[in-house]
C-alpha cells in the first residue's frame, strides 16, 4: 500500500488516533478530553474539553523562535505600498486592535463584522477577534449596501470594522457611504464602527458611533491583551458562501478543529514550512482568504503575502502582467495559491512574463474555486515549470476535500482531476435518485461526504441548525449524508473528476448533459478564451444548450463572417466530442462573462436572462455589464 493510502486509511478507520496525532501540531492550553464526539449526527464535536486560541497559534507561539522573521507582507499595487510586519510587530498590532475593540465593548462570543479591503488592518482585526474570542464575520469588501445590510442583520454584530475605501484597478470605491447606507437599512444597529482611514476617500463620522482606528490604536500602543482561551468547540467565525447558486449560507466554524485542520493541511497538502513565504491571491472575504491568507500560513510559522490589486498592475500602477511573478522572486515564495479565473486573466498576457523572473523558490501552485480546464492547466504548468495542483473544496469544508497530499507522499496529478479524497473525508458518489453508491469506475453521480465530517468542516449554519440539516444532509432519501451539490466521477485509479453543479445539468430531449462537459469541449478550441454553457427551455426538446464564448481575439467576434465560421467550428467540435445532442443550439460571442465577486460563473443568472426571467439576487455579481452583453448578444 502506498504511504498516502495508508495515511488515508488510518484517518478513516481510526479517526480518534489519527486526529489526536494531528492535534499535536498546534498549542493547547488544556489538551482535548475527547477527540471525536459524533453522538448527535450530523453534528460533530472535535477535541471537546480542549482549550486553545487561533491567534495564539498564529502569532504568539512563534515569538520565541521567529519573532523577528516576517509574518505579514502587505502589498498594494493600488496605493503603491509595500509593508512587512515581523511576528513581533504583528503581535503588537493585533493587541492594539484587540484593546481598541475591548474599549468598544467587544468580548468573548460577541460578533464583529469586518468589511474591509485587503489591507493589513483587516488581518489585524481578524486576529484581534480571535484573540478575544469574539466571532468575526468578514464580508467581502465592496459588496453593495443591500448585501451588507442583510449580513448585518444575520450576524448582529456589536461592532463593525471598516475603512474609508477600497481600490480596484486604480478606481477608488468609497466603503463608508456603503456601510452607512447598510446600517440605515438594517434592523440591527451595531453599537460602534471602527474605521481605518487610508486617505483615499473623505469620511463623515457619526458622533458617538464611529471611531478612527488610528486614534484608538495610538491610545493602546503598549497594550498587552492576553489570549482568551476558548473551548475547542467554541465558534471562531462565520462566513457566507459565494452565492453562486442562491441565497448565501452562513457557514459557522469552530476553534480547535479548525486550527488542527489548517495546521495539518499546511503540512500534508501544501507542504509549507516555517520561515518560508506563502502567497495566496484570494481575498479575506472568501474562505480561501481565511484559511490560506490569514490562519493557515501563520499557524505554520510562514510569512503570508497579502495582495491588494489586479494581477496585471505594477507597483507604479502601470500595466504589469508579471507583477505576481516579480513578487514570487522578491519574497522567495515557496507556495502559491490562486484560482483558475486569475490564471485565465494572465493567459491573455504575454507568456514570456512567466520566464522573466527567477521562480526557483516556488514549489507548487495550488488552484481552487472552480473547475480547472485542461488548456489553462497546461498553459500555466508549462509556463511556470512547477506542479499545478488543483484542489476541490467549499466554503463549508474550510480546507481541501479532493487534491493530492504531496507532503505525505509525492503523488501524480492528473489533468482535469483535483485528485483523491483527503484524509478524514469519506467521499462517495451516489446515484442521484436512488441514493445507491456508485463504486464502479466512471459512473456519474452526486459527490457526497459521509459523516463524521473531519475537523475544520462547518459546524452548522449560523443560528440555523435546521437549515444545516435540511439543506445539506437530507437530499438523499433514507441516508444521512452531506451533499456537495456537485456531480462527479471516479476513475479506475480513484481520482475524482468534478463535472459541475447538480443544478447545472441540462436535459436535452430526455438526455442529461452536464454543462461543464460541453464547456470543456468548447474551451479546447484554440480560439476560445472562456466559455459558459447553460440550458435554456425549449418547447420541442425540453432544454437546449446555449454557449457564450469569449474569443481570444476580440475582433473575431465583431466581424459577422468570422463569428459565423467560429460558431460552426465550435458546434462541430462539441458534436465530434460529445455527440450531436450536446451541440449547442447557438453560440454567442461576448467580451466578458458574468461572474461572482470571487470569479465564479453565474450560470444561474445567464440562464434566467436567456429565458427572459428575472435574474434574481445579483448582489454578488462582479460586473453587471457582462449580463447586459449576454442580453444584447441574444437579440443580435
Ligand atoms: P453557493 O454555495 O452560495 O452557491 P459557491 O458554491 O460558489 O456558492 P463556494 O463555497 O465558494 O461557494 O464554492 C464551492 C464550489 O466551487 C464547489 O461546490 C464546486 O462547485 C466549486 N469548486 C471549488 N473548487 C473546485 C475545483 N477544484 N474543481 C471544480 N469545482 C470546484
Ligand atoms: Mg456551494
* Sequence stretches where pLDDT stays below 50 over 5 or more residues: none
Query: What fold name stands as the CATH topology of the largest domain?
Result: Rossmann fold
Give me the Rg, rounded.
Answer: 24 Å
What is the architecture of the largest domain at the second tier of CATH?
3-Layer(aba) Sandwich
Number of helices: 20
Instruction: Specify the CATH homologous superfamily of the largest domain.
Output: ANL, N-terminal domain
The total tally of domains equals: 2
End-to-end gap: 59 Å
> Strand tally, please?
32
Estimated structural class:
alpha/beta
What's the pLDDT, averaged over the residues? 94
How much of the polypeptide forms β-strand, as a percent range?
25-35%
Shape: globular
Secondary structure: helix percent: 25-40%
The order of strands across the largest sheet is 12-11-8-6-7-14-15-25
What ligands does this structure carry? adenosine-5'-triphosphate, magnesium ion
CATH class of the largest domain: Alpha Beta
Largest sheet: 8 strands, mixed
Describe the structure.
The strands form 9 sheets. Strands 12-11-8-6-7-14-15-25 form an 8-stranded mixed β-sheet, with helices on both faces. It is of the alpha/beta class and 636 residues long. It has 20 helices and 32 strands. The radius of gyration is 24 Å and the shape is globular. The chain has 2 domains: 3-473, ANL, N-terminal domain (Rossmann fold, 3-Layer(aba) Sandwich), CATH 3.40.50.12780; 509-635, GMP Synthetase, Chain A, domain 3 (2-Layer Sandwich). Helices cover 32% and strands 25% of the residues. The structure holds adenosine-5'-triphosphate and magnesium ion (MG). Adenosine-5'-triphosphate binds next to strand 20, strand 26 and strand 27.
Amino acid at each position: 500500500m502506498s504511504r498516502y493510502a495508508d495515511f488515508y486509511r488510518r484517518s478513516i478507520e481510526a479517526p480518534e488516533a489519527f486526529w489526536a496525532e494531528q492535534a499535536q501540531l498546534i498549542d493547547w492550553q488544556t489538551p482535548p478530553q475527547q477527540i471525536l464526539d459524533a453522538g448527535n449526527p450530523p453534528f460533530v464535536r472535535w477535541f471537546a474539553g480542549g482549550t486553545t486560541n487561533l491567534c495564539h497559534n498564529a502569532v504568539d507561539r512563534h515569538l520565541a523562535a521567529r519573532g523577528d522573521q516576517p509574518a505579514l507582507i502587505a502589498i498594494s499595487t493600488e496605493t503603491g505600498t509595500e509593508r512587512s510586519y515581523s511576528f513581533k510587530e504583528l503581535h503588537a498590532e493585533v493587541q492594539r486592535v484587540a484593546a481598541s475593540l475591548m474599549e468598544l465593548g467587544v468580548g468573548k462570543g460577541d460578533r464583529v463584522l469586518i468589511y474591509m479591503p485587503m489591507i493589513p488592518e483587516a488581518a489585524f482585526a481578524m486576529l484581534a477577534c480571535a484573540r478575544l474570542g469574539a466571532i468575526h464575520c468578514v464580508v467581502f469588501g465592496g459588496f453593495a449596501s443591500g448585501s451588507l445590510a442583510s449580513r448585518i442583520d444575520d450576524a448582529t454584530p456589536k461592532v463593525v470594522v471598516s475603512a474609508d475605501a477600497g481600490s480596484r484597478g486604480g478606481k477608488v470605491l468609497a466603503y463608508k457611504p456603503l456601510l452607512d447606507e447598510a446600517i440605515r437599512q438594517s434592523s440591527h444597529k451595531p453599537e460602534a464602527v471602527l474605521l481605518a482611514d487610508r486617505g483615499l476617500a473623505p469620511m463623515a463620522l457619526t458622533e458617538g458611533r464611529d471611531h478612527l482606528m488610528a486614534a484608538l490604536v495610538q491610545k493602546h500602543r503598549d497594550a498587552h491583551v492576553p489570549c482568551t482561551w476558548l473551548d475547542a468547540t467554541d465558534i471562531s467565525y462565520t462566513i457566507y458562501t459565494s452565492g453562486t447558486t442562491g441565497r448565501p449560507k452562513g457557514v459557522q466554524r469552530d476553534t480547535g478543529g479548525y486550527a488542527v485542520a489548517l495546521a495539518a493541511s499546511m503540512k500534508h497538502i501544501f507542504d509549507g514550512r516555517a520561515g518560508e513565504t506563502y502567497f495566496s491571491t484570494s481575498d479575506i472575504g472568501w474562505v480561501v482568504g481565511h484559511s490560506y491568507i490569514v490562519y493557515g500560513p501563520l499557524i505554520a510559522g510562514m510569512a503570508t503575502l497579502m495582495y491588494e490589486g489586479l494581477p496585471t498592475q505594477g507597483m507604479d500602477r502601470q500595466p504589469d502582467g508579471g507583477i505576481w511573478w516579480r513578487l514570487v522572486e522578491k519574497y522567495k515564495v515557496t507556495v502559491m495559491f490562486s484560482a483558475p479565473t486569475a490564471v485565465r486573466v494572465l493567459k491573455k498576457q504575454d507568456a514570456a512574463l512567466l520566464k522573466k523572473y527567477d521562480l526557483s523558490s516556488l514549489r507548487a501552485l495550488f488552484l481552487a474555486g472552480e473547475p480547472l480546464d485542461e488548456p489553462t492547466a497546461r498553459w500555466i504548468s508549462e509556463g511556470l515549470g512547477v506542479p499545478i495542483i488543483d484542489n476541490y473544496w467549499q466554503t463549508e469544508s474550510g480546507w481541501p476535500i479532493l487534491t493530492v497530499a504531496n507532503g505525505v507522499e509525492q503523488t501524480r496529478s492528473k489533468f482535469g482531476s483535483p485528485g483523491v479524497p483527503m484524509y478524514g473525508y469519506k467521499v462517495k458518489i451516489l446515484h442521484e435518485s436512488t441514493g445507491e453508491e456508485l463504486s464502479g469506475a466512471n459512473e456519474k453521480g452526486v459527490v457526497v461526504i459521509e459523516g463524521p465530517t473531519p475537523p475544520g468542516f462547518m459546524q452548522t449554519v449560523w443560528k440555523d441548525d435546521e437549515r444545516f440539516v435540511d439543506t445539506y444532509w437530507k437530499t438523499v432519501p433514507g441516508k444521512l449524508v452531506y451533499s456537495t451539490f456537485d456531480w462527479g466521477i471516479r476513475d479506475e485509479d480513484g481520482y475524482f473528476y468534478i463535472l459541475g453543479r447538480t443544478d447545472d445539468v441540462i436535459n436535452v430531449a430526455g438526455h442529461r448533459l452536464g454543462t461543464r462537459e460541453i464547456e470543456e469541449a468548447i474551451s479546447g478550441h484554440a480560439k476560445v478564451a472562456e466559455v459558459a454553457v447553460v440550458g435554456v427551455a425549449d418547447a420541442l426538446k425540453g432544454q437546449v444548450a446555449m454557449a457564450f464564448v469569449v474569443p481570444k481575439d476580440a475582433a473575431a467576434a465583431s466581424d459577422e463572417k468570422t463569428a459565423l465560421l467560429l460558431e460552426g467550428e465550435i458546434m462541430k467540435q462539441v458534436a465530434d466530442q460529445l455527440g450531436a445532442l450536446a451541440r449547442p443550439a447557438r453560440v454567442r460571442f461576448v467580451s466578458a462573462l458574468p461572474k461572482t465577486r470571487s470569479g465564479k460563473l453565474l450560470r444561474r443568472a445567464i440562464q434566467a436572462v436567456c429565458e427572459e426571467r428575472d435574474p434574481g439576487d445579483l448582489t454578488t455579481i462582479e460586473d453587471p455589464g457582462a449580463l447586459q452583453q449576454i442580453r444584447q448578444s441574444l437579440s443580435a
